[in-house]
Amino acid sequence: MKTAIYARQSVNKKDSISIETQIDICKREIKDNGPIEIYQDKGYSGKNTSRPAFQSLLNDVKQNKINNIIVYRLDRISRSVLDFANIIDILKEHNVGFVSANEKFDTTTPVGKAMLYIVMVFAQLERETIAERVKDNYYARGTEGVWLGGPAPYGFNNTKISIGNKNVATIVPNEKIELIKWIFEQYQQDDTSLGIIARQLVAQHPGEMWNNIKLSRILHNPAYVRADVDVYNYFKSKGCIIKSDISQFDGIHGLNIYGKRDRTLNKYNNIENHHVTVSLHEGIISSRDWLQCQYKLENNIQIKNTGTGKHTWLTGLLKCGYCGRAVTPKKTTKTTMKLYCSGKPLGLCDEVTNSHYLTDVENLVSEKIKKYIDKMQECEINTIENANETEINILKIELVKVETEIDCIVNNLTLANEVMMKYANEKIIELDKKRNEILGKLSKLSVAKPHKLDVPDICDWDSGSKEFKKEVANILIDRVLIYNDQITVKWKYWYTSILFPKYPHPTV
Fold this sequence. Notes:
The protein contains 13 helices and 17 strands. It has 4 domains: 2-138, Rossmann fold (3-Layer(aba) Sandwich); 156-298, Hect, E3 ligase catalytic domain fold; 318-379 and 454-491, no CATH class; 381-452. Strand 16 and strand 17 form a beta hairpin. Helix 11 packs antiparallel against helix 12. Helices cover 40% and strands 18% of the residues. By secondary structure, the protein is α/β, with parallel strands linked by helices.
């Protein structure tokens, strides 16, 4: 039987006790001349017990090779109360004493054992308090709009600016920012995708890595957007915690987003409960363009590699209405083809979805396309290109504030008595009047310049080639949903609410 000395040091710091010093201090606590075994872990944290030398020590304890353990401090063993309690139980089971040289605790005595547990509880409490304080400070810095550290987004450089008497971190555009603008501009096009853009960038900028993942991160990043009320509402709808007042969404500055990342998901896939703040730096992408890209990313509106469309010009657009997987044509006779869900053979779709002939679906979609374009040619849309965008954003801010106040009053009506109910009704009428006034002002600003929609010319549709029909279909249609008893066409052209909020979908 022998005495074990255990020493641990996470990293070499000027104010940290070296392993050698820890061992020397522990040796002073040895009361007999028996054999000594030294166990040491260098470069390991005390957050858990997954350390080679410590595990070796525990193994020797379980084999009854050790009768006493000496450490310099309690936290050399573990910073976790639970881990430490489990270790003490193991030592107790094998009649092994424990001595801390610094705290002067000896578990061979009842008082020493009790005091040991108390100290460990407070040690962990202190650690958790420090961690919480660091997190709170981190979030507080975020609300000030400063850059919270880490590499700057592509197209930006880290820098420091002086605000008051403090130097704070922010980001500034570099020579690559024009490439970012090009990426956002390209991705909005109906005939492009992440893969197409990546291949173009690789060809144009040899030596630099470009792929779908990198592009997706760039397009999702709110640092690039000139954040206005529309962006505020977007993140609000995502369940984000907006830490900046809505008045700060001025259509000029970019955003910071921060919060605990779910490692099982892409960073921007689930941003619920993430903090969003208006940053000190200015954005470079308009809210309309940035939001357009978000909707396209969310709906996966990317032109897939659908091949040449050997059997149909609807290749890539046909989807099962039940499971969302691709629907493909298969020959039933030499001259006829039926549509089948690709998920059914895999056991991923329980519906029949084989009740439609390909020619019937093509004819139906053709008629819908012709009617859809006829409707679009009759329509005019209103743009606000010549309107005062700053004034519009200010009005939108006022509108959100008014609607928030109305919602707050309505939500509290259940707690109101008769007198308060009367007051609440009067206040709601007043706020609703103000709301209508704001909407009227916005409406006047939104009728700046009417013009006809630019729609494809399909006068030769019936005699057009398969390639021509495929091109038109990919411009207009997001997907064609196949159900057992119906066909539904989801349109893609000029209907994003962020672009034309007042433009109704043509009914066909």
